[in-house]
């Protein structure tokens, strides 16, 4: 395939992934609305709606809660399928086996030449905790191994504890020397924008498509704890 054909293919894959992510945002917004109905009634997916004598609980709109629960289950099933679709779409965009892309017209990283591969780079940060239901936990990720993606590519869920960060968006080891302040700034500057985070997990590489956002129910835009990594 010619270079122009490859670029057009990557552009098409990116546009497809963005459309899927827009659909994900719509599903998430409706899911948040249904969850708000439960919260307004002081209920969750498991709260009993009848008392010990079999009568409806007085302070709960039983009908509204039941409808919300049914819709939440439907939305979660739709979201699961959509996340799988997004993961497959991202495989056409982010490949850990390929040389690092250029950022703003220059080779990404500090001292990383255009031919340097991610597996040759040292991690600069470590994930020490991830909150359930957070953007970091729910992000789509694709596993790679060695110098190429596995023939059977696995769609995994988000960042995980003990992940070693090799690349965070456009940031790599040389650009975050002296602390992780630049990572925090990068997250703030890219709220509601999706970017790749490459981590080492076990013996393989994982590319996580991360979208910082507020209003997910916890602290921060990611819901994870990252510290500097020293081998």
Automatic annotation (TrEMBL):
* Entry's Gene Ontology cellular component terms: cytoplasm; nucleus
Keywords carried by this UniProt record: Chaperone
By its UniProt entry, which Gene3D superfamilies does this protein fall under? 2.30.42.10, 6.10.140.1710
Q: Which Pfam families match?
A: Nas2_N
Superkingdom, taxonomy of origin: Eukaryota
Q: Which residues form the Nas2 N-terminal domain?
A: 19-94
Return one Gene Ontology term, BP aspect. Answer: proteasome regulatory particle assembly
PANTHER family tied to this protein: 26S PROTEASOME NON-ATPASE REGULATORY SUBUNIT 9
Q: What is this protein called?
A: Nas2 N-terminal domain-containing protein
């Amino acid at each position: 395939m010619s270079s122009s054909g490859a670029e057009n293919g990557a552009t098409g894959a990116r546009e497809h992934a963005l459309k899927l992510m827009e659909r994900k945002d719509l599903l998430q917004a409706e899911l948040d609305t249904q969850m708000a109905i439960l919260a307004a009634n002081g209920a969750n997916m498991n709260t009993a709606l009848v008392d010990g004598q079999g009568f409806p609980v007085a302070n709960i709109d039983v009908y509204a809660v039941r409808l919300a629960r049914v819709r939440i289950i439907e939305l979660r099933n739709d979201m699961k399928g959509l996340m799988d679709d997004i993961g497959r779409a991202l495989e056409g965009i982010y490949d850990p086996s390929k040389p690092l892309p250029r950022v703003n017209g220059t080779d990404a990283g500090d001292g990383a030449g255009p031919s340097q591969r991610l597996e040759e780079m040292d991690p600069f940060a470590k994930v020490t905790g991830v909150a359930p239901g957070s953007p970091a936990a729910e992000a789509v990720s694709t596993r790679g191994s060695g110098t190429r993606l596995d023939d059977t590519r696995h769609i995994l869920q988000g960042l995980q504890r003990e992940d070693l960060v090799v690349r965070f968006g456009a940031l790599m080891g040389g650009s975050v020397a002296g602390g992780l302040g630049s990572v925090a700034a990068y997250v703030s500057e890219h709220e509601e924008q999706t970017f790749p985070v490459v981590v080492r997990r076990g013996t393989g590489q994982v590319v996580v498509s991360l979208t910082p956002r507020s209003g997910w129910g916890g602290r921060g835009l990611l819901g994870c704890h990252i510290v500097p990594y020293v081998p």
